[in-house]
Amino acid sequence: MTVVIDCNIFVMCLTSRSPYHIIYKHLVNGKYDLVVSEEILFEYEEVIQQKYSISTANALVALLKELPNVHFHVAYYKWLLIDADADADDNKYSDCAIAGKANYLVTEDRHFDVLKRIGFPKVATLSIDEFAALLEKI
Fold first, then answer.
1. Which residues contact 93 (CB under 8 A, 6 or more apart)?
2. How many domains does the chain have?
3. Using CA atoms, how far apart are residues 63 and 23, in angstroms rounded to an integer?
4. What does the pLDDT look like over 38-73, one tens digit per residue?
5. Residue 78 belongs to domain with CATH number
6. Residue 128, CB half-sphere, CA atoms under 13 Å: how many?
């Protein structure tokens, strides 16, 4: 299974006290593939620095660059599926999901709800609860 994970999901799953820590543990253990772009990695780093610490952000980025199940993709085509009035910056996630042929984009962000109504290109989304439940079965 290949996924793109929205930054807010990483914020919720990093700490071992989180009920969603399975997402982080399964990534580290190679139970699924993660697709990222340099833009996404930069956002992970920036937000994790704000929510946790610089050292936590640096450790996460270093780990993601080393894991064999983390794949970097460049989205050469910008689909602009997320409306600029919502949060056009989120397009990097849907573009990466398309470029990386991800099965799912995991997010809690309502700006991605528009993807459920778009037939092409198809980007399937999962909530954090749906993704954690799917990982429980692996």
1. 4, 6, 40, 105, 107, 112
2. 1
3. 15
4. 999 999 999 999 999 999 999 999 999 999 999 999
5. 3.40.50.1010
6. 20
Q: Could you give the percent of the chain with pLDDT greater than 90? A: 77
Contact predicate 94/81, CB 8 Å: yes
Contact 106, 5 (CB under 8 A): yes
Tens of pLDDT, residue by residue over 101-122, are 999 999 998 878 778 888 888 8
Round to whole Å and give the CA distance between 69 and 100.
13
DSSP of the chain? -EEEE-HHHHHHHSSTTSTTHHHHHHHHTTSSEEEE-HHHHHHHHHHHHHHT-HHHHHHHHHHHHH-TTEEE----S----S-HHHHGGGHHHHHHHHHTT-SEEE---GGGGGGGG--SS---EE-HHHHHHHHHT-
Structural contact between residues 8 and 109, judged by C-beta atoms closer than 8 angstroms: yes
